[in-house]
Amino acid sequence: MTTPVATAPFIRLGGEPGVRALVDRFYDLMDLEPAYAGIRAMHPGSLDGSRDKLYWFLCGWLGGPDHYVQRHGHPRLRARHLPYAIGIAERDQWMACMIQAMQEQAVDETLAQRLAESFFGTADWMRNR
Ligand code: HEM
Questions:
Q1: Is the CB of 129 under 6 A from ligand 1?
Q2: pLDDT beneath 50, residues of the chain
Q3: Residue 39, Cβ neighbours under 10 Å: how many?
Q4: Is 80 in the pocket of ligand 1 (CB under 6 A)?
Q5: Is 0.70 surpassed by the pTM of this model?
């Protein structure tokens, strides 16, 4: 009997184009939805750089190519978020924005649920207030 090999979320999301589409929807929503205005205001006027960085990071985080590390070295995510005041409200806005993006990109429900749990762990770890 063979043990089924878990397919990396990166593949299940559709590889690079799928991850890019999810990140683009995430930042489109952050720009559009008043509910996310609090975290939108922490970001630069143009979200182009933020889109690229989150896309590169998530490719590796989801089990695909390590684009972020190749460009920026170790992510040091918590340290890189220290300039921004992140408390429970900001964490919850980030999570709601990502969950909405996954729904709108029609990410499989079981996968979306699992990813939401993993995202939550990282988002909660980013809290510095
Ligand atoms: C908890 C709420 C969060 C808030 C309010 C937040 C906010 C921000 C802000 C304002 C930036 C700077 C954007 C820029 O330089 O263009 C940033 C960068 C970044 N964030 Fe977050 N973030 C949160 C959670 C997360 C989570 C959960 C992840 C990953 C799963 C993540 C991944 C990143 C990455 C990869 C960068 C780029 C870092 C760099 O190279 O400078 N963030 N975030």
A1: no
A2: 1, 3
A3: 19
A4: yes
A5: yes
